[in-house]
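Figure 6 in text form: structure in, sequence out.
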């Protein structure tokens, strides 16, 4: 089928719209008409080749849309279903068998190779093939080819556009809290970085019953948003010493759990330094 997609032609190049031919779905594959897609730093990292994937390619991995067609053997979803797309996995390795697909032994092959595992791409144009199936989807397009394993059916009464980031940013932040830290009710959680991942972590901490939820950032607007989604305290790191603020807030004990969403070594060091005895950081 003919689709329109934002193609990354070369390292650092701007996304450019092009008309491509998308393969019909093979067994276990699903064609999704895209309604919305988030954009993540990983998309930009691949565009700039800081995270390698062959180019030209169609990126995008926070997609949401409506199923239009399914391949043989697909039973989980059908045409007309509203879905959110996430990363792909093999479904058969030791980690997938443990219910931990984010640690799939073939994660790179299914998400960053730019090809199906059989070495083919579903995206084509007259000048040559274009790499696709980025994170099992390549969502920067009018239609995406995904796998039954990485589409999640959602309530059709819920608007799809704001659901799109659930496939990456939201599940990263919330998953770090709910699946990795698993904080007990009444505990203290400090989240460093109040972007989409950090805000998701804040919301998850609230859901988990944490009574002291702190967001740390250097952007005042982000800190306002953190309060709106449930942070009990916020701290601007440019205004005063973060460690001193947290020591005072916790009566000198330190935090029970910390989450670093910045990726900055200095911030991660701080996230560890403000922990109390027996505490955890991710």
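Output sequence:
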């Amino acid at each position: 089928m003919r689709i329109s997609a934002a193609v990354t032609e070369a390292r650092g190049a701007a996304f450019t719209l092009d008309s491509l031919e998308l393969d019909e779905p093979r067994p276990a594959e699903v064609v999704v008409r895209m309604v919305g897609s988030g954009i993540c730093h990983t998309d930009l990292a691949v565009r700039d080749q800081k995270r390698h994937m062959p180019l030209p390619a169609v990126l995008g991995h926070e997609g949401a849309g409506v199923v239009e067609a399914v391949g043989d053997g697909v039973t989980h979803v059908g045409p007309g279903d509203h879905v959110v797309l996430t990363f792909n996995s093999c479904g058969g390795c030791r980690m997938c068998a443990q219910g931990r697909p984010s640690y799939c032994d073939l994660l790179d092959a299914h998400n960053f190779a730019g090809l199906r595992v059989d070495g083919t791409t579903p995206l084509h144009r007259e000048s040559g093939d274009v790499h696709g199936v980025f994170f099992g989807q390549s969502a920067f397009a009018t239609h995406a080819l995904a796998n039954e394993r990485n589409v999640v059916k959602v309530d059709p009464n819920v608007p799809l556009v704001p659901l799109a980031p659930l496939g990456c940013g939201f599940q990263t932040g919330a998953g770090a809290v709910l699946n990795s830290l698993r904080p007990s009710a009444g505990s203290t959680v400090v989240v460093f970085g109040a972007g989409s991942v950090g805000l998701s972590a804040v919301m998850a901490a609230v859901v988990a019953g944490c009574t002291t939820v702190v967001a740390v950032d250097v952007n005042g607007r982000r800190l306002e948003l953190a309060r709106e989604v449930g942070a009990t305290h916020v701290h601007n790191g440019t205004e005063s010493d973060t460690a001193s603020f947290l020591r005072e807030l916790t009566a000198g004990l330190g935090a029970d759990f910390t989450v670093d969403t910045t990726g900055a070594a200095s911030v991660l060091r701080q996230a560890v330094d403000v922990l109390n005895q027996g505490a955890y950081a991710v």
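Caption detail: The chain has a mean pLDDT of 96.
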